[in-house]
């Protein structure tokens, strides 16, 4: 909701509600008629335009009463005060000198007494704005007696006003950074109260701000004359507060010759140069071959990944939805039988894009199968254990915004967790438990799933496999967990079905590539050379023991059982006898089906 819409609701509701609570974007500055106003001034100005109140008072416990005509305030008369001290109803003499320094009526109990008295005055209609109200009370169960007395005064003052259809009566506005810090007894099931969430500037409001301060931006092009750069800046600051827009302008003055895109990247992610921009066209043209070296037999899946990467590289990702480019760089849903390379392709993609396989950040969604597991992702609410630690997902994306996010076995997550992905996929951002916005617009998101894998077999045609798994996925999301909108955000065309690995040459290639890793590890870390005498015979033996329906994963299992375990025993038994740079020969006895190792 925009600031304009929030204020329109405020002006409407204040005409008949007696107690309003404002939360949301309350720590911002607010642009009005060419000026940036603090919330106090902004609210007072907006309320004066309604002409509903004779006077508007602003109070907080540090400054006391900082706005409004105190002479007109009706104050409770203390018994100890003489008649001579009661001048024009002014309450100054009711309090000691320390109370009046730097502001009047600093003590909450004194101020609430005045609020109570004025709320019941039918002759005047006034409005009290109470700032930082979330710091005034403890938890509902832990309220001190004085706090309970203050709450009672406020509640009675609101409830016992005479009903006046003609003018509506006086009102209180509580400004809070978090409504959960306000005792629920003040607003829950109370027809006199209304909660209003103050929004951030919408596009028109951002446009007005940028055009007003465009001269303060120092960019590669002149923002005042370059219309396209100005549009890009306005769109790129979607969901920014007015303060953040001013901060971006200040940041632009610290960097010479910077473009709008790099300025926003620097502000959001702390990096001026995006890894996406640094991707060499020559390398991108070879993506199919590069990924194909690690993921065998999945040409259709690699082709889809190539398509997503090229869209991201050219900057066209998500433009059909919004010019702000706030969506993730790409979204893919990998499905199919187990052990066919779904997770491996995500890792290979991270290494291709960011030259580091660890840039593939994996979340096992079976760990998020409870309703409140979302707290693990975005952090526990204030007051709960683990609040300071933040969320696993939001922390990681803050630390590494340029990455491949891998959500493994997404179907095992609780449906409430899936709701978080709706916002991530639609807006490219998420708010953590501390109210900080994290951005997903520089990452590729990959979901993997085994949905429908139990309904297909390796003797089926690939078209039949694709149709069976696709229908199983649709049924799961549309009927079982009732989240069809999530598939809509992902896009049906981005559901990539992997095939069984049936080709013997591909299976042999997978086994050979894994053996190569073992050879490279021994050479680099142990300074031992591993040499196969009859490697093809050994590979055929491995594949003869492999369950084809379990794909590459079973090949790894058999390599571990047959090669790694026996090699480990040999190295252990000969520890101290193997010299540096020695060569171990691996011989496979085809007749006996056994491995032999020789130094």
Which structural traits does this protein have?
599 residues; alpha/beta; Rossmann fold; 4 domains; 6-stranded mixed sheet; 5-stranded parallel sheet; 22 helices; 15% strand; elongated
What does the model show?
- The chain is an alpha/beta fold.
- It folds into four domains: 196 residues, P-loop containing nucleotide triphosphate hydrolases (Rossmann fold); 67 residues; 217 residues, P-loop containing nucleotide triphosphate hydrolases (Rossmann fold), CATH 3.40.50.300; 95 residues, Helicase, Ruva Protein, domain 3 (Orthogonal Bundle), CATH 1.10.8.
- The protein contains 22 helices and 18 strands.
- Strands 5-4-6-7-1-8 form a six-stranded mixed beta sheet, sandwiched between helices.
- Helix 6 crosses helix 7.
- The longest helix is centred in the C-terminal third of the chain and has 23 residues.
- The radius of gyration is 33 Å and the shape is elongated.
Short description:
With 599 residues, the chain is of the alpha/beta class.
CATH class of the largest domain: Alpha Beta
Number of strands: 18
Looking across the biggest beta sheet, what order are the strands in? 5-4-6-7-1-8
Class derived from helix and strand content: alpha/beta
Round the mean pLDDT to the nearest integer and report it. 85
Q: And the CATH topology of the largest domain?
A: Rossmann fold
Question: Which stretches are low in confidence, meaning pLDDT under 50 for 5 or more residues running?
Answer: 78-102
Fraction of helical residues: 40-55%
| Main sheet summary | 6 strands, mixed
Global shape: elongated
